[in-house]
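#help-structures
NK: newbie question, is this the right format to request a structure? protein is Glutamate decarboxylase
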Amino acid sequence: MPQWQPRRAQITQRMLPPEFSVNPLFSRKGEEAVPRFRMREQGMLPETAYQIVHDEIALDGNARLNLATFVTTWMEPSADLLYAKSVEKNMIDKDEYPQTAAIEERCVRILADLWHSPSPQNTIGVSTTGSSEACMLGGLALKRRWQNARKRQGKPIDRPNIVFSSAVQVVWEKFANYWDVEPRYVNITPDHPYLDPEGVLAVVDENTIGVVPVLGVTYTGLYEPVAAIARALDEFQSRTDLDIPIHVDAASGGFIAPFLQPDLVWDFQLTRVKSINVSGHKYGLVYPGLGWVIWREAEDLPEDLIFRVSYLGGNMPTFALNFSRPGAQVLLQYYNFLRLGKDGYYEVQKASQTVAQFLSKAIHDMGPFELFTDGSDIPVLSWRLKEGYTSNWNLYDLSRQLRTFGWQVPAYPLPPDMEDVTIMRVVVRNGFSMDLAHLFLMNFKQAVSFLDSLDGPIPHDTKYDNGYHH
């Protein structure tokens, strides 16, 4: 997969002039030009600084047309007002902002109840800056629980491993790398495009700290079969006496399944599921960045991972990786819980799923494409170009052509052992209405028609084919 190259970005930036020019309407004497790469000696009027930054970010993509990202790009005006009124709140400072801390605690209880914790009022959880931090905390708890159990048994603790599919989000690769845990990948296949129980049982052993199924795979939007994996591990324990826990990465699905698939068993109803993370800033419908991690019961988070500090004015526990972090997004999450309730969350998520299924059917019916997912799990659709349809263009070309209309739609290869398959993906989020879907479909058909009209193949340098990870 193409990788972002810091050196290339740095070289590209240096192609720009070393100074910004300033609109004469905003500049004072001596402000006709402003250095780009160093801090100037004097300050400037706020209007001048605003104009410089505002003009440059005008080149960013339109967030509403970004169909690559899972992250919330729109909230209603009342939420925007609440956000503006609370941007100064520091979530770590629970002594200065006790009500914000109380609201965070309420959100933990609400999520624990939503995910069927056996004791939602007594379990433990925390907000984070995103699901990546929440995953790190969940993984650390798995590792520490495994280490503590091994120490009690007098066994070595130097070779922990963790199991997930090759389609796992990159944060789990980071976790394994940063905390010296061996990653064991179960490669996806055309028959099993997700983590399957047989693959799990083939790689687990006494050093496995946990198994991580994903509820809403980033590549395709599929749910991995948490209940089936849990049953397989139950049977494995009955044969070997090895008790291997599950952490569910529900970054996307944690705010979808409880409302759109309420009968799906994936959460704390399974006693083997010890922790769950979710992105509040994805289908939790909150601006970035906000994540949550909840443990099934308080004892599932080892006590030695909790630190207590007194230098903010009170003795308070902390077990997030970040210290200072925004509190405003936590308030927005609670706002959504109050504003929408379960019925409202259902309506919002169902509307997104309806748009996803409308688009998936329309794209399938066009002919050139074969669907991978249609939005039946999370509201994400993905497709490939039918083999043999054309040699003149590929999905990377289609992605670039859609960009001419303003739409950002990723094309990328699947992970091992399916890296020879390239797919496209559309993430439908709140705010991507059926009206926008019709406009997108019109531009999509225009892009395909243009590419089909080409007399010969488009030349490619695969180094610069687009690749997205969101």
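mod (FA): yep, format's fine, and the tokens are attached above. The chain has a mean pLDDT of 90.
NK: thank you!
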